[in-house]
Specification:
This protein has 733 residues and is an alpha/beta fold. It is built from 25 helices and 21 strands. The chain folds into three domains: 13-199, Beta Barrel (OB fold (Dihydrolipoamide Acetyltransferase, E2P)), CATH 2.40.50.140; 264-463, Rossmann fold; 473-515 and 528-648, Rossmann fold, CATH 3.40.50. Helix content is 37%, strand content 18%. It is globular, with a radius of gyration of 29 Å. This is Probable DNA 3'-5' helicase RecG. It comes from Micromonospora nigra. Residues 486-660 form the Helicase C-terminal domain.
């Protein structure tokens, strides 16, 4: 170890020793002094403050600050030796049991009642009690007689605020705290990237002060100032990236596609069997204006399930066809691409039959391109696309392959954009001579600050009204473990719906059997929980048991494409009563006669996913019912999440809940890249005002210095916080 000054790029092995540096690198991906200094505490504990032990989830790796209340030693039943049980807690009433196996009299002497400590381990449950088996711990001294703590690590905890770091079993929080202390003793902070005028105007502390106080705060006020400054760095880096991208996109040329009078779009509007909602008309007008501009449209269209996004997108596609171009729609699954194809053919009628007897005057052709097309059908479809005869082209990622060439691609529509990577969208855009206009659609409502942070280089349109004819959906949680009779009643309720002439979905989290795929998760759980329920296992059990005699179909992502399509067609035609499926039915599947959905192991799905799934019912005249079946305990975070989904159908409320429960850093693509997120402190929910301020400052700065040529330290900071991979992820079009 060295006492020489250290900088952000100094290797940790020079500062904390080889063994510790290796542990930090392999378990936490921390390699340099800068990595460690930017590894911020997750939270700060204070002696005497309540740790909400009752809210801890089984299977979670936790660090709790607690006081020893009592100890007990008893002989083990299955083998020789004693078991030491230590009860820790605080005056809130929550307690946790620590268990240590073997004869450890020294540990009993050390863990005396009254002593405070930090205890780290994995939460398990035994006979209804939360416990940590053989946890790592460090004691903070003796609260009863003032005895000095034995470990040097606890010097870090001498202050009132005790930092608790994101840790690993092999590298507990107090080891990280000790390493941070060593590094800060010699650390030379980098040049401050924020312009001095901005720091003064926004009353922000310098970077050196912020980095010290975030780890070793001398007061809550100093901690607040440090966190605020470092949040600014994160928000400002993201907003600068987005503002620069938006500016560059506006400078690119694109072929205008203005609306034409008396063409396909007018003919389509005249034959629509229903009136557009005011929202659809307004959003349609915004898109039409964008398409007529000489630079590429980059617009996000968000709307609840069933709000009519597809009709809005089809009208945009027809405007482009009227202007001599082609439009392509990229769908995430073959089921959805085929459904879009059928739906658009029905809506367009003779307008989609160019070259056929009885076609309309301004007709075009609508082609479907998927991986499962036969050779002859594929050759014919590709010829139609290449010649320009097919004005509208629908497909899956098969559209991206070599050999799919467009005559004049003017508009790319991406359905359920979160299912696609940026490189896939880029591959489709590259098939146009000039940058095409881009419309991305999502039925997952997006909180305002997420839209500002993740989609900040797109214009955003929102469809909030549901078209006439959509029915309400009631949702209820079915606690299968506590009240098995409720699950029996759920199956009887499904039979009642079928008896009334309706249909139902049963959704499982897993396909089952060996194999792989996006829907599949390996049935591995080291917390003692059973594997998630699987379609291929549940379907025969239902057919032999509670749904005996009903016509049951199975749908999942590993079925051959023609089989998937046949199952969906049978279900849509009413030839099946029940469809047992994975989340392959999550988006776009539209069967108005389906009125009920039972989601098994509902706690294994995310909030937005459950909201999407439930949108498959209530699409016709009859009301919808969604039952969320779970074995999770009342009061657990998983159960509270399900209760929240059941309590509202407001997608925007649920999107905010979803954001609270996910790691917010995922919005920067951490889950796609497999690397640590750089949104470490910024909360897209709690820091909305700060994000708006950062956006405003970013716009002003980029107008004055578009490429940050006069702000080199800032440009380097942006590059570090939003590296090329994340910048690519942020470009949503």
């Amino acid at each position: 170890m060295t006492s020489e000054p250290s900088a952000v790029d100094t290797p940790l092995k020079k500062l904390v020793g080889d063994k510790t540096a290796k542990a930090l690198a392999s378990h936490l991906d921390l390699h340099t002094a800068g990595d460690l200094v930017y590894h911020f505490p997750r939270r700060y504990d204070e002696r005497g403050e309540h740790t909400d032990i009752r809210s801890l989830d089984v299977g979670e790796q936790v660090t709790v600050l607690a006081q020893v209340q009592r100890t007990a030693v008893r002989p083990m039943r299955q083998r020789r030796g004693n078991l030491l049980e230590v009860t820790v807690g605080d005056d809130s009433g929550g307690t946790l049991t620590l268990t240590f196996f073997g004869n450890q009299a020294w540990r009993e002497r050390e863990l005396r009642p009254g002593r405070w400590g930090m205890f780290a381990g994995k939460v398990t449950e035994f006979r209804g009690r939360r416990q940590l088996n053989g946890p790592e711990y460090v004691l903070l001294g003796d609260s009863t007689d003032g005895e000095a703590a034995a470990s040097e690590e606890v010097e870090e905890f001498a202050g009132a605020l005790i930092p608790v770091y994101p840790a690993a079993a092999a590298v507990p929080t107090w080891v990280i705290a000790r390493c941070v202390r060593v590094v800060l003793d010699t650390f030379t902070p980098p040049e401050d990237p924020l312009p001095a005028t901005l720091r003064a105007g926004r009353n922000l502390v310098g970077i050196g002060v912020a980095l010290r106080e975030i780890h070793r705060p001398s007061s809550k006020e100093d901690l607040y100032r440090a966190r605020r400054r470092l949040k600014w760095d994160e928000a400002f880096a993201v907003q600068l990236t987005l503002v620069q991208r938006k500016r560059r996109a506006a400078d690119r040329p694109a072929r205008p596609r203005p609306a034409a009078t008396g063409g396909l779009l007018d003919a389509f509007d005249a034959r629509l069997p229903y009136e557009l909602t005011p929202g659809q008309r307004q959003v349609g007008s915004e898109i039409a204006t964008d398409l007529a501009a000489p630079h590429p449209m980059h617009r996000l269209l968000q709307g609840e399930v069933g709000s009519g996004k597809t009709v809005v997108a089809l009208r945009a596609m027809l405007q482009v066809v009227d202007a001599g171009g082609q439009a392509a729609l990229l769908a995430p699954t073959e089921v959805l691409a085929a459904q879009h194809h059928r739906g658009m053919l029905d809506l367009l009628g003779p307008l989609a039959q160019a070259g056929e007897l009885g076609s309309a005057e301004h007709a075009t052709r609508v082609e479907l391109v998927t991986g499962s097309l036969g050779a002859a059908a594929r050759r014919r479809a590709l010829a139609e696309v290449a010649s320009g005869a097919a004005g509208i082209v629908l497909g899956t990622h098969a559209l991206l392959y070599e050999g799919v060439d467009f005559a004049d691609l003017g508009l790319v529509v991406v359905d359920e954009q979160h299912r696609f990577g940026v490189e896939q969208r880029d591959a489709l855009r590259a098939k146009a001579e000039q940058p095409p206009h881009v419309l991305v659609m999502t039925a997952t409502p997006i909180p305002r600050t997420v839209a500002m942070t993740v989609y900040g280089d797109l214009e955003i349109s929102t469809l909030s009204q549901l078209p006439k004819g959509r029915s309400p959906i009631a949702s209820h949680v079915v606690p299968a473990a506590d009240k098995p009779a409720f699950l029996d009643r759920a199956w009887r309720r499904l039979r009642e719906e079928v008896a009334a002439g309706h249909q139902a979905y049963v959704v499982c989290p897993r396909i089952g059997e060996a194999g792989s795929g996006a829907e599949e998760e390996p049935p591995v759980d080291d917390n003692g929980r059973r594997p998630p329920l699987a379609v291929t296992e549940v379907a025969p059990l239902l057919a032999e048991g509670p749904l005996h005699g009903l016509r049951i179909g199975v749908l999942h992502g590993r079925l051959p494409a023609d089989e998937k399509d046949a199952v969906m067609r049978s279900f849509a035609a009413g030839d099946l009563d029940v469809l047992v499926a994975t989340t392959v039915v999550e988006v776009g599947v539209d069967v108005p006669n389906a009125t009920m959905m039972i989601v098994l192991d509902a706690d294994r799905f995310g909030v937005s996913q459950l909201h999407q799934l439930r949108g498959r019912v209530g699409r016709g005249a009859a009301a919808g019912l969604c039952l969320l079946v779970t074995e999770t305990a009342e009061g657990s975070s998983a159960r509270e999440r399900l209760d929240a989904v059941a309590s509202t159908t407001d997608g925007f409320k649920l999107a905010e809940l979803d954001l609270e429960q996910r790691r917010e850093g995922d919005v920067l693509g951490a889950t796609q890249s497999g690397r640590r997120s750089h949104l470490r402190l910024l909360s897209l929910l709690r820091d909305a005002e700060l994000i708006r301020d950062a956006r405003s400052e970013a716009v002003t700065l980029v107008e004055d210095d578009p490429e940050l040529d006069r702000h080199r330290a800032l440009a380097a900071s942006v590059a570090a916080l939003v590296d090329a991979e994340r910048a690519e992820y942020l470009e949503k079009g």
